[in-house]
Design brief:
By secondary structure, this protein is mainly β. It has 5 domains: about 5-80, Sandwich (Immunoglobulin-like); about 90-160, Immunoglobulin-like; about 170-240, Immunoglobulin-like (Sandwich), CATH 2.60.40.1080; about 250-330, Immunoglobulins (Immunoglobulin-like, Sandwich), CATH 2.60.40; about 335-420, Immunoglobulin-like (Sandwich). About 0% of the residues lie in helices and about 50% in strands. The protein is built from no helices and 34 strands. It has strands spanning about 5, 25, 30, 40, 55-60, 60-65, 65-70, 75, 80, 90-95, 105-115, 120-125, 135-140, 145-150, 155-160, 170-175, 185-195, 200-205, 215-220, 225-230, 235-240, 250-255, 270-275, 285-290, 295, 300-305, 310-315, 325-330, 335, 340-345, 355-370, 375-395, 400-410, 415-420. The strands form 11 sheets. Strands 29, 30, 31, 32, 33 and 34 form a 6-stranded antiparallel β-sheet that branches. Strands 25-24-27-28 form a 4-stranded antiparallel β-sheet, with no helix packed on it. The protein has a 3-stranded antiparallel β-sheet with strand order 4-7-8, with no helix packed on it. The N and C termini lie far apart (about 145 Å).
Length: about 425
C-alpha cells in the first residue's frame, strides 16, 4: 500500500504560557497516502471528521496525533512534548521601617522565581506601578498584597506583612478645666503624649513651635483647641473643648425710663429683678444705694430720687463669684397737673436728650424753658396749641455737663424739674 508519513516539522507549536495552563499547541505535516485526511489527537477517533493539522488548548505533556487517509489507512505520530514553564513563587520581606507611625515611607522587598522574563511587581489596589522589586510608600501596621507578573502575563501573589515603625504619636487629655465665668479666660487643658519614643514636646494651635513643657496650656477662653505632641519629629494631635457657663441674664422692671418717684420729695420708687438665669449654681441679687445701704433680693423699694452723681447699683453673682453689674437712677417719673394732665421727663441724668411726654392735652398752649444752675435761660421753645398725647425731645447736646432746670408750661400751669446733663 501507500505509506503515510507524519513529520514532526513544527509549523506553529507553543508550550503552555503559564505553569498549569492549557493553552499549548502542536502542529504537524502529512505526506503520502491518499488525500483527503482525517486527524485526531490522543486517540484514533475520527468521528468528528476533523482535518485540522494544529491542535490547541493543550496542557503540558506528550501528545500523539493520529491520521487516517481516504483509503482508511491509519498512522500515528511519535509523542510530541509540551513543557510547562517553571512554576512561579514569591517571597516578601520588610526592608526598612517607617519614620513615623502615621507616615507611609516604609519599604519592603519582593523576589519572584520561575515564570518567564521579565518579572514586574505591583501592590494590589495601587495605581502607581512599582519600579523594580523594592516596594516603598508603605504604612506601618498594614498588610499589602504584592503581585508579580512574568513576561507571559503569568502571576503569583503574596502578603507583605510586619511593616514596622515607631508607635503613632497621639495626645490624651489629662484634665480640662472650664472657664469660671462667661467671657473669662481662665480655662486650662493638660495633656500627655503617647507613642513615639516617649519623650514629648507640645504646641497649641498649629503643629509647630514645639516646646518642652508639662503639656498644660492655661489662660484659655471658651472654645475648641488643637493640641499637638512631637517625638523625634513625629507628631500627633487632637481637639479639646473648653466650655463656659452661660452668661448671667436678667431683666429689671420697671425700665429705667419708666421708673420714678411719684413726686418731688417722695420715696416710693422701686426696682425688681425678673427672669434671672445663667451663671453657675444659685444667683445672689444685691442692691447697693449711694449711702452704702445694701439690700439682698429681687426687689428694692422705698427709693428716693437719686442726687447728682449718685446711682443705685445692681450686682448679680453666681456661686463661682461671676458677676453682672449695672447702675440705675431714680427720677421723678410722672408729674400730674390740673385737669388730669400728666407730664414725664426721662432719662435723668441724660447724655443730652430729654424725652418730654404729655398726656391729657385739650387745646392748651405748650412751651418749655431750660435754665442753668444760676437761673439763666439757655433755651426756650414754644410748641403751640396741642391736644391728646404729645411727645417731643428737649436737646441739651450743646450744653456743658451740669445741673439744669426744665420748666414746662401747659396753659396757665407750669412745673419745673432738675435735669442732670452728664
Amino acid at each position: 500500500g501507500i505509506e503515510i508519513v507524519i513529520t514532526e516539522n513544527v509549523v506553529d507549536s507553543n508550550n503552555p504560557s503559564c505553569f498549569g495552563f492549557s493553552d499549548g499547541q502542536v502542529c504537524v505535516e502529512i505526506a503520502g497516502g491518499v488525500a483527503p485526511y482525517l486527524t485526531s489527537i490522543a486517540t484514533a477517533d475520527f468521528s468528528d471528521e476533523s482535518s485540522e493539522l494544529c491542535f490547541t488548548d493543550l496542557p503540558s505533556g506528550n501528545h500523539v496525533v493520529f491520521v487516517q487517509d481516504d483509503l482508511g489507512c491509519v498512522v500515528n505520530s511519535v509523542a510530541l512534548a509540551l513543557n510547562d514553564p517553571l512554576q512561579m513563587a514569591i517571597s516578601l520581606d520588610a526592608l526598612s521601617p517607617a519614620s513615623c507611625g502615621d507616615v507611609a515611607d516604609a519599604c519592603g522587598i519582593a523576589l519572584a522565581t520561575g515564570g518567564q522574563p521579565t518579572i514586574t511587581y505591583e501592590i494590589e489596589g495601587w495605581i502607581e506601578p512599582q519600579v523594580g522589586n523594592t516596594l516603598c510608600g508603605l504604612l506601618p501596621g498594614m498588610d499589602y498584597t504584592v503581585i508579580a507578573t512574568d513576561g507571559n502575563g503569568c502571576t503569583v501573589s503574596g502578603m507583605l506583612t510586619e511593616i514596622t515603625g515607631p508607635a503613632q504619636v497621639g495626645v490624651n487629655a489629662n484634665t480640662i478645666t472650664d472657664v469660671t465665668c462667661f467671657g473669662s479666660e481662665d480655662g486650662e487643658i493638660c495633656v500627655s503624649g503617647f507613642g513615639g519614643n516617649g519623650n514629648f514636646s507640645y504646641s497649641i494651635g498649629e503643629c509647630e513651635n514645639f516646646e518642652f513643657n508639662d503639656g498644660c496650656f492655661g489662660a484659655l477662653a471658651e472654645g475648641d483647641y488643637v493640641i499637638c505632641a512631637e517625638s523625634d519629629g513625629c507628631t500627633g494631635s487632637d481637639t479639646f473643648t473648653v466650655d463656659a457657663p452661660n452668661a448671667i441674664q436678667y431683666g429689671v422692671t420697671p425700665s429705667e425710663e419708666n421708673a420714678g418717684v411719684s413726686e418731688a420729695g417722695a420715696c416710693d420708687g422701686m426696682f425688681e429683678v425678673i427672669n434671672e438665669g445663667g451663671g453657675t449654681g444659685n444667683l445672689t441679687i444685691l442692691w447697693t444705694l449711694a449711702d452704702g445701704t445694701q439690700v439682698v433680693g429681687n426687689t428694692i423699694d422705698g427709693l428716693c430720687e437719686t442726687e447728682m452723681g449718685d446711682v443705685i447699683n445692681l450686682t448679680i453673682s453666681d456661686e463661682n463669684g461671676c458677676e453682672s453689674s449695672e447702675d440705675f437712677l431714680m427720677t421723678i417719673g410722672l408729674y400730674e397737673l390740673k385737669n388730669n394732665i400728666q407730664i414725664s421727663m426721662f432719662p435723668n441724668p441724660t447724655n443730652g436728650i430729654v424725652n418730654l411726654s404729655i398726656e391729657g392735652l385739650a387745646g392748651q398752649a405748650v412751651s418749655a424753658k431750660v435754665l442753668n444752675s444760676i437761673g439763666a435761660e439757655v433755651q426756650s421753645t414754644d410748641f403751640g396749641t396741642l391736644s391728646g398725647i404729645w411727645n417731643n425731645e428737649i436737646s441739651l447736646m450743646g450744653q456743658a455737663s451740669g445741673v439744669y432746670f426744665l420748666n414746662v408750661i401747659v396753659g396757665n400751669e407750669s412745673i419745673s424739674h432738675r435735669i442732670i446733663k452728664q
